[in-house]
Amino acid sequence: MLRLPRCLRAFAPSLLLVLLSFSGADAHCFVGPRFFPATLVIDDPCVADEMSLPTVAWSRTGDIPPVSELDISAEFDKRITEDLGFGISDVWTQLRSPGGTMQQGLGNLETTLQYQLLKTPSSETAMLLGLIVDWGGTGNSSVGIATPYSTLTPTYYFGQGLGRLPDELGFARPLAITGQVGYQIPTTSYIVSQNTFVPQVLVYGASVQYSMPYLKSEVKDLQLPDFFNHLIPLVEAQLFTPIANNVGNPSTTTGTINPGVIYVGSVYQVGLEAIIPVNGASGSGVGVLGQLHLYLDDMFPTTLGQPLIGGSFSPSTKPTS
Amino acid sequence: MRMFFIVAMFLLGALTAGPARAHAFLDHATPLVGSTVRTAPPEVSLTFTQNLEPAFSSVQVTDASGARVDQGKAQISGNTMRVGIKSLSPGTYRVRWHALSVDTHSTEGSFSFTVGGS
User: Fold this and answer.
1) pLDDT tens-digit profile of A207-253?
2) Which chain A residues are within 8 Å of B100, Cβ to Cβ?
């Protein structure tokens, strides 16, 4: 008789409930026929009503010896208008060293204001501008989990589907690329108590996605089992490069490459990725990242899923995307 | 940590076990998306994942030159949209659809199918 590993027995019944509850359909950041899912590391290129609850990541840091890091975060995003959105998030971090010492606590509260520059259905193109603010002192800075200073990161996001490729390249049409580039500016340039300069950092990343739902509905229905028609395999990358005010600090670019897959349901999506550090300074070994993401506009179409200003729920009015 | 995962998985299960209200996506079509059929079909039928608002949902079928080959207004019932097709010659045709789900979410898409050939 097969016995589940102990770590799985605790949530086996709820896992069974999930497996029996698979349903169809996709939702959310749509540009014409293209759906850009909420990716786990970088952001998707749309304002939306959505929630990530939770995102769980485990990895080992680039310290010598490496420290085990567990991050559990939550994020809530809400449209103010059709084109303006606001987000708030925070992360709880636990650092466990090989010697057994442990530090844990909340990171700084992070807010994001985003404006949808454009969404062009015919070319499957989306662009977004945002300002990410990490509010210094709102987290546990006493043990180094959070910083006492704030950072402001103006960011540009984009998404481009490849649906316009010629028919000869039909099987490449489900591909899409998303990305973001931001410049992180700390509110302080020098920490006196630590005798440390605080650099300005270029924060950038991208994803390459292959949409099985797009393949089925736009290119060719291969009549695969329905489970596969909900999958979006992808590779994400996020990198950080110190640009200025980096005296006395390493100038190494750090970051991770995250191959994984997203399953898209009717009102939610589930993502799972590996965390692969790009170099020794970025981490040690392969970590893992998982996320449950909720589409609030599909769960609550008449209330929480409507913009705060200008939203309406009536088939006779302008449809929402 | 174990309790965290239990709660998270039950949340996911509860979300998926209830009635789905979401965007209407193309679940399947006849002719199949990207398929080649030996004989011209009498109609194009689209089945979606959600029920549709008939007044705001539509479908058009065009030939390679962009001329419409459908017979006009689609018949929409529940989550299915059908449109009659004129007699088609061998060739490739494109179906363009726009759907509004009953909870006012809008989706659109297009695909091609081929009549005749191998």
Assistant:
1) 999 999 999 999 999 999 999 999 999 999 999 999 999 988 888 99
2) 315, 319
Q: Which fold has domain A28-299?
A: Porin (2.40.160)
Enumerate domains of chain B plus CATH numbers: 22-115 (2.60.40.1220)
Q: What is the pTM of this model?
A: 0.86
Q: For chain A, which residues make up each domain, given as ranges?
A: 28-299
Amino acid at the residue A26: D
A231 at B interface, C-beta within 8 A: no
Interchain CB contact of B86 with A (< 8 Å): no
Strands B36-37 and B106-115: parallel
| B64 shares contact with chain A (CB less than 8 Å) | no
Distance (Å) from the alpha carbon of A197 to chain B's nearest alpha carbon? 37
Interface confidence (ipTM) of the complex: 0.86
CA distance B1 to chain A (A): 10
